[in-house]
Amino acid sequence: MQRYLGLDVGDCTVGIAASDLLGLTAQGVETIRRTTLEQDAKRLKELMDEYETYKLVVGLPKNMDGTEGDRCAVVKEFIREMRERIPAIEPVYQDERLSTVAAERSLLEADVSRKKRRKVIDKMAAVFILQGYLDGMKR
User: Which fold has domain 5-138?
Assistant: First the structure.
């Protein structure tokens, strides 16, 4: 079976999730605090090696009408930069509309404090992105 990493790319952070070996469930891994593209790529490569995958499910923040706006361009540029540094990356873009909203709602329902929510929201959004992709593959 094939493992995947899910990415929620933001300006300051990248939330990371990983699938299980069967490709059924996504679990939060960490939130990378973005510094330089070299450092971002180094940490991403370490995670790809640890989870033995080059397949990345990348959240694409489309507009509510389904069009791609400025945020999509930022995400695609980040992935382009990562592919220059890690040529083996195999990105798949997943519509991530409302993934952060779903993650926030899930954390609120779990009664997680605001301070803790801020620390894990990107990682949770990555879980929703990856789980959406995995669920779509099962259909």
Answer: Nucleotidyltransferase; domain 5 (3.30.420)
